[in-house]
């Protein structure tokens, strides 16, 4: 499958969050062309500000593999990671991060002065299905204003 096809699956996870009135961020983790984890934001449901899609997907992948590192895995996430998620991704040693929409307000870039907060071996790709990912976020916040 292509990055775009995997991002479509992450968007389906984000739609689940949207439908549950959670900020619509979705994530999947792929390893050897197999989805090993999927998640969406559950901050409101769990009353936990750390229940971001990336964190939940990482926890699921660690459990699935019985490992704390993911150097051969790729995370697909609909919005670029925040600083908290970036720290978790750093420690996971994930091989690749693919994100959709930019997040100028809450992204890791806001706090890192342009420095890369990810593991030095982590590949970062942005802008995959950027418009679709951004539109879901815009629709969510427009409906709440």
Number of strands: 5
Class inferred from helices and paired strands = alpha/beta
Tally of helical runs? 6
Q: What are the secondary-structure elements, in order, as H or E?
A: HEEHHEHEHEH
Helix percentage range = 40-55%
Tell me the radius of gyration. 14 Å
For the report, how would you describe the main beta sheet?
A: 5 strands, mixed
Oligomeric composition of the shown chains: single chain
Low-confidence stretches: none
Could you report the average pLDDT, rounded to the nearest whole number? 94
Report how far apart the termini are: 37 Å
Largest sheet, spatial ordering of strands: 2-1-3-4-5
Strand content: 15-25%
Overall 3D form: globular
Explained architecture:
This protein is 43% helix and 20% strand. The chain contains 6 helices and 5 strands. It has a 5-stranded mixed β-sheet with strand order 2-1-3-4-5. Helix 1 (3-19) packs parallel to helix 6. The longest helix is centred in the first third of the chain and has 17 residues, at 3-19.
Strand-helix topology:
Layout: H1 3-19, E1 26-31, E2 34-40, H2 43-46, H3 53-65, E3 73-79, H4 83-92, E4 96-101, H5 109-112, E5 123-125, H6 130-143
Parallel strand pairs: 3-4, 4-5
Antiparallel strand pairs: 1-2, 1-3
Helix pairs in contact: 1-6
């Amino acid at each position: 499958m292509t990055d775009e096809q995997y991002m479509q699956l992450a968007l389906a996870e984000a739609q689940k969050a949207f439908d549950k009135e959670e900020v619509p961020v979705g994530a999947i983790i792929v390893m050897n062309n197999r989805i090993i984890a999927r998640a969406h934001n559950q901050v409101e449901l769990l009353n936990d500000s750390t229940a971001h899609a990336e964190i939940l997907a990482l926890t699921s992948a660690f459990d699935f593999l019985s490992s704390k590192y993911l150097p051969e895995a790729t995370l697909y996430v609909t919005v670029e990671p925040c600083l908290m998620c970036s720290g978790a991704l750093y420690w996971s040693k994930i091989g690749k991060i693919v994100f959709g929409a930019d997040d100028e307000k809450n992204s890791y870039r806001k706090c890192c002065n342009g420095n890369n907060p990810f593991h030095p071996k982590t590949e970062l790709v942005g802008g995959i299905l950027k418009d679709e990912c951004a539109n879901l976020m815009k629709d969510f916040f427009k409906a709440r204003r």
